Amino acid sequence: MGWEALKRWGDDAARVEPLAGGVANDVWIVRVGGRRAVGRLGSRSDADLAWETGLLVHLDRAGLTVPVPIPAADGRLFADGLVVSAFVDGGPPESPADWRRVAGTVRQLHRLTRDWPQRPGWRSSADLLHAETGTRIDLRAMPAEGVARCRAAWARLAGRPTCVVHGDLNPGNIRLTADHVALIDWDESHVDVPDLDLDLPGNAAGLDAATLDVAAQASAAWEAAVCWKDDHAVSRLAQVRPVG
Fold first, then answer.
1. pLDDT tens, 83-95?
2. Which end of the chain is more exposed for a tag (fewer CB within 10 A), N or C?
3. Which CATH number fits the domain that encloses residue 69?
4. HSE on the CB side for 38, CA within 13 Å?
5. Of 192, 241, 233, 197, which Cα lies nearest the Cα of 215?
6. Is 228 helix (H, G, I), strand (E, B) or coil?
7. What is the DSSP string of 81-108?
8. Residue 30 pairs with which residues in a beta bridge?
9. If DSSP codes are grouped into helix, strand and coil, which group holds residue 195?
10. Residue 55 covered by a domain
11. How does the average pLDDT of the chain come out, rounded?
12. Residue 91 to residue 177: CA distance in whole angstroms
């Protein structure tokens, strides 16, 4: 159906201008009910979108600033692959103090989602110690030596409690104002060990040296696997220590 689905949000709903940065989705500023919002059109399954929109509603109700889904006229939070969300103001973190604020928000996310069910079709780092595929990850496409390095990094997380991790905390997915720290673009969010979110610039999460090393190695391995084989993935795999 494509962008025709936007009419489910009202006869006056319309696209305004495209937003840069969408990889798996077509993302636009839209106008819904006379206000600015963000429309995201992609090919994710209904089960996947139900998981993500349900998570965002939960986090909003708990007090986190997130792109809250705006219901269509019939009350649904998505339709035909389209999600319309509230526009979130702010800019990226720029200082060590900004990143410490981000770390506090990320830890709150983790507290609010302990034992959350896994995103449909996704695998955690623990699952990938044995599984070869899961959503955007296909370890069969990586060199065997690289897979061994990634699995060795993830094995250090085994047995730890799980929660929802955002999974892509680059500055472009963070919106700061004096009043809030907002996390946007939840395409990579899934259930895993919180350490994957805590390898932040300047060790903003305040991890001890041993914990920081585990987090840094595990997150580098994850980014290598999920993005394989673009230049970023290759550079991240190079940061994962050889086995033995």
1. 999 999 999 999 9
2. C
3. 3.30.200.20
4. 19
5. 197
6. coil
7. TEEEEE----B---SHHHHHHHHHHHHH
8. 15, 37
9. helix
10. yes
11. 95
12. 7
